[in-house]
Fold:
Amino acid sequence: MKIFETKTAPNPRRVRMFMAEKGLLDKAGFVQIDLAKGENLTAEYVARNPMKKVPVMELDDGTCIAETMAICRYFEEAYPDTTPLLGKTPVDKALVEQWLRWIEFYFFLPTGMSFQHTTGYFKDRMNPIKEWGEECAVASEKFFHFLDKHLAGREFICGDEFTAADINAFTTVDFNKVIDIRIKPEQQHLQAWYDRIKQRPSAKA
Structure:
């Protein structure tokens, strides 16, 4: 199988960390897509993912799976003997899903919108609205505070074990650097959690 990605982008990083935690990085070949040059807009790429985003996975039979968590779900189900990252019990699975949605909607999305609307990176293919980007940055900063408070006395975000929630939050914290938002000195719980996750080999995948 092949995974078409942009290695510096946050969504592909989420997939690579997920695969690395499961020891599955060798199961796919990674093909780099240059977003700045618009390689994701070509007819060949759009045929794989009409949403024109990265990453997208192409299985050996030609089936294409787009969206980060859909790809992660594939690996969770296809390799059941690997470390579970989406929960074990019904309750665990529901709570991980809850956190994934919170992180996606209230953290990753505003971070991405702030990046797109304040940096001009995609100004050749969209209409950036600076004020909207700035408002999204405020929402992202609020989630830093929310996470810091939540992580007091906790090693991981959801439950007692490392999950995809930690992966998605960690990569989003890092992605915030592109809009100059970082962990504040007083956010000690968030910083301690971040430092623990950064030490995991998957963080360098």
Notes: The helical segments are 10-22, 43-48, 68-78, 90-119, 130-150, 164-175, 188-198. The mean pLDDT is 97.
